[in-house]
Design goal:
With 346 residues, the protein is of the alpha/beta class. The protein is 38% helix and 20% strand. It has 9 helices and 12 strands. The protein has helices at residues 3-39, 92-104, 123-140, 155-158, 187-193, 217-242, 246-252, 260-266, 275-286; strands at 57-62, 64-75, 109-118, 120-122, 143-153, 165-168, 173-175, 180-182, 257-259, 271-272, 292-298, 335-339. Strands 1, 2, 3, 5, 6, 7, 9, 10 and 11 form a 9-stranded mixed sheet that branches. Strands 4-12-8 form a 3-stranded antiparallel sheet. Strand 5, helix 4 (155-158) and strand 6 (165-168) form a beta-alpha-beta unit. Helix 2 runs parallel beside helix 3. 29% of the residues are buried. The model is unreliable at 1-52 and 313-331 (pLDDT under 50).
């Protein structure tokens, strides 16, 4: 049988397998939901696909007075692509930019606390968020404090750089200041199956990064060069905002992760504490009273909202019966990432 026919059959088989897997997962979700509804665990009129997105509205968390501290959050993989499986959610970039646009219209916002809990993400999405935060700070003159939660690594640290003060939780893992290029390979599997892919290309490097064959020495050199260039940009921004000592910059450039205490010793962060401390610091930097109003943006008001309930997750009054999100189950797409891969999917 000709190789091209075998290749086409392989591609068709892969597509069919993914289609069957998706259908099986969707069917299982529907069966579980129906079972829960029949057993009385959830109401039968639950819409597993969610409802159309609503505009953000301000919700007061506590405090009083005209001047405000705005609490925002960056959670999970930083990406410019929509998220979710059964229910589509806006990307990290879409969410944050929409909230910053709303904040631009409110001159009573004097400080922002950005709560970061992320392993990082794509280089482009991380840089877009960094740029948008810098632009908002310049236009508004607000003070910005970052409160790192469990994880603020790589892109999670990148988006924290514009802060006037970076605070990490005592158990935060941060750092990973570097770039990783991820490229899935299936050449070995295809060899075992006895199939291949015929390629006609206009230039010798047109199919560089192809998953269907091993990379050449020249291709590896070029990818390494691009990776180093992206890493230099990251380190230059770190030095611009943090002004590290040469020894600290050398340790940071290894792209390893650090505990909160280690990060403070290196100068990557300013203090170690809790979210309450971050809010107090923001009020102090902005010259606000200790009981100044703290607000957040949510699509639907939550009666029991706290500092730890991200606005983007307060979609309804009842928790979701089924939470299916393949974002952390599948490997990232090929490309450049400011990402700590060990934490991806956690």
């Amino acid at each position: 049988m000709p190789r091209q026919i075998l290749s086409n059959q392989l591609a068709s088989s892969v597509h069919l397998a993914f289609a069957r897997l998706t259908l099986a997962r969707l069917t299982l979700a529907c069966l579980v939901l129906a079972s829960l509804a029949l057993s009385g665990c959830v109401q039968a009129n639950v819409n597993i696909f969610g409802e159309p997105g609503k505009p953000y509205k301000e919700q007061t968390l506590d405090g009083k007075g005209k001047d405000k501290v705005l609490l925002l959050g960056i959670n999970g993989l930083i990406s410019e692509h929509a998220r979710g499986f059964l229910r589509s959610r806006p990307s990290t970039v879409q969410e944050l930019v929409a909230q910053l646009n709303l904040a631009r219209e409110d001159k009573d916002i004097k400080a922002v606390v950005l709560k970061v809990d992320s392993p990082g993400g794509t280089t482009t999405a991380s840089d877009i968020i960094y740029h948008e935060i810098m632009a908002y700070k310049k236009a508004s003159g607000v003070k910005l404090v970052v409160a790192m939660m469990g994880l603020a690594a790589s892109g999670g640290y990148y988006v924290s750089l514009p802060a006037d003060h970076i605070l990490a939780h005592p158990t935060t893992i941060t750092g990973s200041v570097g770039v990783i290029f991820l490229q899935p390979r299936v050449a070995g599997l295809m060899d075992k199956l006895g199939v291949g892919v015929d390629v006609s290309k206009s230039g010798t490097l047109k199919d560089m990064g192809s998953p269907f064959r091993a990379a050449t020495a020249e291709e590896k050199r070029l990818v390494d060069s691009m990776t180093r260039a992206q890493a230099r940009l990251f380190l230059e921004l770190v030095q611009k905002h943090r002004n590290l000592e040469p020894a600290a910059l050398g340790i940071t450039s290894s792209a390893r992760v650090f505990t909160a205490a280690e990060a403070k010793d290196l100068g990557l962060i300013d203090s170690v504490g809790y979210l309450d401390d971050a809010l107090a610091k923001a009020k102090d930097l902005a010259g606000l009273p200790k009981d100044a109003t703290v607000v957040t943006y949510r699509r639907r008001e939550s009666p029991d909202g706290t500092y730890y309930l991200p606005g983007v997750e307060a979609e309804g009054s009842r928790p979701a019966a089924i939470n299916v999100d393949l974002e952390g189950l599948l490997p990232p797409q090929a490309g450049m990432y400011y990402l700590w891969p060990l934490a991806y999917g956690q």
